[in-house]
Amino acid sequence: MARKLEPNAPASSERFKAMKILSDRGIYTGVALMPVLPFINDSIEDIEEIVEKAAEAGASYVLPLFGVTLRRGSRDYFYDKVERIFPKMTKRYKTYFEDRSECTSPNAPYLNEAFYRKIETLGISASMNFYQSEGRKQLSLF
User: Is 138 among the domain residues?
Assistant: First the structure.
Protein backbone atom coordinates (compact mmCIF):
# COMPACT_ATOMS: atom_id res chain seq x y z
CA MET A 1 0.00 0.00 0.00
CA ALA A 2 1.39 3.38 -0.96
CA ARG A 3 1.85 6.18 1.51
CA LYS A 4 -0.12 9.17 0.28
CA LEU A 5 2.14 12.03 -0.77
CA GLU A 6 0.33 15.26 -0.24
CA PRO A 7 0.81 17.27 -3.43
CA ASN A 8 1.59 20.93 -3.42
CA ALA A 9 -2.07 21.72 -4.05
CA PRO A 10 -1.72 25.39 -5.03
CA ALA A 11 1.04 24.67 -7.57
CA SER A 12 -0.75 21.58 -8.83
CA SER A 13 -4.02 23.48 -9.16
CA GLU A 14 -2.30 26.34 -10.97
CA ARG A 15 -0.71 23.95 -13.45
CA PHE A 16 -4.04 22.34 -14.27
CA LYS A 17 -5.66 25.79 -14.59
CA ALA A 18 -2.92 26.83 -17.02
CA MET A 19 -3.37 23.60 -18.97
CA LYS A 20 -7.11 24.22 -19.20
CA ILE A 21 -6.57 27.73 -20.56
CA LEU A 22 -4.11 26.47 -23.18
CA SER A 23 -6.27 23.51 -24.12
CA ASP A 24 -9.37 25.71 -24.45
CA ARG A 25 -7.39 27.81 -26.93
CA GLY A 26 -6.58 24.78 -29.06
CA ILE A 27 -3.04 24.22 -27.83
CA TYR A 28 -1.99 20.60 -27.58
CA THR A 29 -1.38 19.77 -23.91
CA GLY A 30 -0.61 16.77 -21.76
CA VAL A 31 0.99 15.45 -18.60
CA ALA A 32 4.27 13.65 -17.99
CA LEU A 33 3.20 11.42 -15.11
CA MET A 34 6.69 10.85 -13.81
CA PRO A 35 8.24 10.06 -11.57
CA VAL A 36 5.81 7.96 -9.59
CA LEU A 37 7.62 7.29 -6.32
CA PRO A 38 7.55 3.66 -5.20
CA PHE A 39 6.04 3.19 -1.72
CA ILE A 40 5.03 6.87 -1.59
CA ASN A 41 2.57 7.83 -4.33
CA ASP A 42 2.25 4.62 -6.31
CA SER A 43 -1.34 3.74 -5.57
CA ILE A 44 -4.08 3.19 -8.11
CA GLU A 45 -6.05 6.01 -6.48
CA ASP A 46 -3.14 8.46 -6.96
CA ILE A 47 -2.74 7.55 -10.63
CA GLU A 48 -6.47 7.69 -11.38
CA GLU A 49 -6.79 11.06 -9.66
CA ILE A 50 -4.02 12.61 -11.74
CA VAL A 51 -5.43 11.20 -14.98
CA GLU A 52 -8.91 12.51 -14.10
CA LYS A 53 -7.53 15.99 -13.32
CA ALA A 54 -5.58 15.94 -16.58
CA ALA A 55 -8.76 15.05 -18.49
CA GLU A 56 -10.71 17.83 -16.76
CA ALA A 57 -7.96 20.25 -17.79
CA GLY A 58 -8.20 19.18 -21.43
CA ALA A 59 -5.06 17.06 -21.68
CA SER A 60 -4.72 15.10 -24.90
CA TYR A 61 -2.18 12.68 -23.45
CA VAL A 62 -0.64 11.38 -20.24
CA LEU A 63 2.82 9.79 -20.42
CA PRO A 64 3.38 7.41 -17.49
CA LEU A 65 6.52 6.12 -15.80
CA PHE A 66 5.67 4.04 -12.77
CA GLY A 67 8.91 4.45 -10.91
CA VAL A 68 11.88 6.73 -10.44
CA THR A 69 15.39 6.87 -11.85
CA LEU A 70 18.12 7.07 -9.20
CA ARG A 71 21.45 7.54 -10.89
CA ARG A 72 24.70 8.06 -9.05
CA GLY A 73 24.76 11.63 -7.81
CA SER A 74 21.00 12.09 -7.63
CA ARG A 75 20.50 9.01 -5.43
CA ASP A 76 22.01 10.55 -2.26
CA TYR A 77 20.10 13.78 -2.76
CA PHE A 78 16.86 11.85 -3.25
CA TYR A 79 17.45 9.66 -0.21
CA ASP A 80 18.18 12.73 1.92
CA LYS A 81 14.88 14.33 0.88
CA VAL A 82 12.93 11.10 1.38
CA GLU A 83 14.47 10.69 4.84
CA ARG A 84 13.36 14.21 5.80
CA ILE A 85 9.81 13.82 4.54
CA PHE A 86 9.25 10.10 5.15
CA PRO A 87 11.57 8.99 7.97
CA LYS A 88 12.96 5.49 7.55
CA MET A 89 11.66 5.16 3.97
CA THR A 90 15.24 5.40 2.68
CA LYS A 91 16.03 2.03 4.22
CA ARG A 92 13.14 0.50 2.31
CA TYR A 93 14.41 2.00 -0.97
CA LYS A 94 17.97 0.81 -0.32
CA THR A 95 16.81 -2.68 0.59
CA TYR A 96 14.40 -3.05 -2.31
CA PHE A 97 16.33 -1.34 -5.12
CA GLU A 98 19.94 -1.70 -3.94
CA ASP A 99 22.13 0.19 -6.45
CA ARG A 100 19.83 -0.06 -9.47
CA SER A 101 19.30 3.18 -11.33
CA GLU A 102 15.83 2.27 -12.60
CA CYS A 103 13.51 1.80 -9.64
CA THR A 104 10.17 0.60 -10.96
CA SER A 105 7.30 0.50 -8.52
CA PRO A 106 6.43 -3.02 -7.34
CA ASN A 107 2.85 -1.91 -8.04
CA ALA A 108 3.65 -1.14 -11.70
CA PRO A 109 1.59 -4.01 -13.19
CA TYR A 110 -1.52 -2.90 -11.28
CA LEU A 111 -0.86 0.78 -11.97
CA ASN A 112 -0.39 0.06 -15.66
CA GLU A 113 -3.68 -1.83 -15.86
CA ALA A 114 -5.60 0.88 -13.97
CA PHE A 115 -3.93 3.64 -15.98
CA TYR A 116 -4.85 2.17 -19.38
CA ARG A 117 -8.39 1.41 -18.23
CA LYS A 118 -8.80 5.03 -17.04
CA ILE A 119 -7.35 6.72 -20.14
CA GLU A 120 -9.50 4.55 -22.39
CA THR A 121 -12.58 5.58 -20.42
CA LEU A 122 -11.61 9.26 -20.60
CA GLY A 123 -10.43 9.24 -24.21
CA ILE A 124 -6.84 10.28 -23.47
CA SER A 125 -3.79 8.93 -25.26
CA ALA A 126 -0.74 7.36 -23.61
CA SER A 127 1.50 8.76 -26.32
CA MET A 128 2.31 12.20 -27.56
CA ASN A 129 1.75 13.33 -31.14
CA PHE A 130 4.84 14.97 -32.48
CA TYR A 131 4.87 17.99 -34.73
CA GLN A 132 4.46 17.17 -38.39
CA SER A 133 5.68 19.61 -41.00
CA GLU A 134 3.11 20.80 -43.51
CA GLY A 135 5.47 19.56 -46.20
CA ARG A 136 6.49 22.91 -47.63
CA LYS A 137 9.62 22.79 -49.72
CA GLN A 138 12.36 25.36 -49.67
CA LEU A 139 12.35 27.53 -52.75
CA SER A 140 15.23 27.21 -55.15
CA LEU A 141 17.28 30.22 -56.21
CA PHE A 142 18.03 28.61 -59.56
Answer: no
Is the bond preceding residue 38 a cis peptide, omega within 30 degrees? no
Find the domain containing 34 and state its range: 27-122
Compute the distance between CA of residue 67 and CA of residue 93 in angstroms, rounded to an integer: 12
Number of other residues whose CB lies within 10 A of the CB of residue 119: 20
What does pTM read for this prediction?
A: 0.81
Helix (H) or strand (E) holding 83: helix 74-85
CB 103 within 8 A of CB 70: yes
Give the torsion sign (CA, 129, 29, 67, 99). positive
**Could you read off the pLDDT of 5-30 as tens digits, one per residue?**
454 455 578 999 999 999 999 999 99
Instruction: Decide if 134 is inside a domain.
Output: no
The total domain count for the chain is 1
> What is each CA distance from 137 to 54, 115, 126, 141, 142, in whole angstroms?
37, 41, 32, 12, 14
CA 31 to chain centre: 7
Q: How many CB atoms lie within 10 A of CB 75?
A: 19
Q: Would you state the torsion angle of the CA atoms of residues 4, 5, 9, 15, taken in this order, to the nearest 10 degrees?
A: -110
